[in-house]
Prior knowledge:
- It is a single chain.
- By secondary structure, the protein is α/β, with parallel strands linked by helices.
- The protein contains eight helices and ten strands.
- The protein has helices spanning 2-20, 40-45, 79-92, 159-167, 190-195, 197-201, 214-224, 242-267; strands spanning 28-33, 47-54, 58-65, 68-74, 95-106, 116-124, 155-156, 176-183, 209-211, 228-236.
- It has a five-stranded mixed beta barrel, surrounded by four helices.
- The longest helix has 26 residues, at 242-267.
- The radius of gyration is 20 Å and the shape is globular.
- The N and C termini lie far apart (69 Å).
- The relative contact order is 0.20.
Amino acid sequence: VSGVCCFRGLLNVQRMFTARSGPPVCDRVGVLAAMPAEVAKLKDTVINQVEYKYGEVFTFTTGELSGKQVVFAAANVGMVFAASAATTMINLFAVKHMIFTGVAGGLHDGQKIGDIVVGKDVVNYEFDCRNFKYPWDPGYELQLGEIPFISWRYFEADPALFAAAMAAPRPNGVRISSGRIASGSVFVTTDQKKLMSETVWKPLGFPACCEMENAGVAQICRAYNIPYVSLRALSDLITGDANADFNAFCAAAADNVFPILRSVVENAGQGVPGP
């Protein structure tokens, strides 16, 4: 009798875990951002929304966008939160394609607030193991952003998602370019951007923009073999006042990304378009 009771108890625990672990399983496109303003358009547009809350920070919302099953969230600021949210989306929400959206700080002359940068690849500009030497290969020199032992450095966008983003209809007056995106744990002021030119941006091939989440998400997607792309609208530039510009233009810049985001969701899973 005790064995039967124990077995029934285990079944009940399994049912409880399954019921609480997430929504019904179906392949989804995951859309992540840092701040609520960056997913406000999704909140207004996605239909059949259902919210799932985990812990004190994370709220994931499932629904449909342009006929595709999606889940979206504002993970909060920083790579740790973003990577954790991406992992949850992949493991509990059956995400098969991941898009990171939001704003970033421009690093090139000639850029304008509201311009969109589609990330060709992403790098963590703060990850620095250049002083570390392999005992078996002391002559090998690790590069800024390179992870030892697995030699990951630049996390490339999925070719199909990248092509869909670059081919998407463009909002009136909005310029779209592609380039490298650099992630770190610092809100970089205009003066800091300039000071980092030779020591950080140059070794990384002069990225197009910088922000605080992408590399964490891209690294998780690489680890799980999930196709990934990043869409960033510029909220501040290499000139001006980064803090004032960010506060003034964050929401409007994020809105510029939405038509591109929708097009990428619609084309997720369809492969690279032909010539």
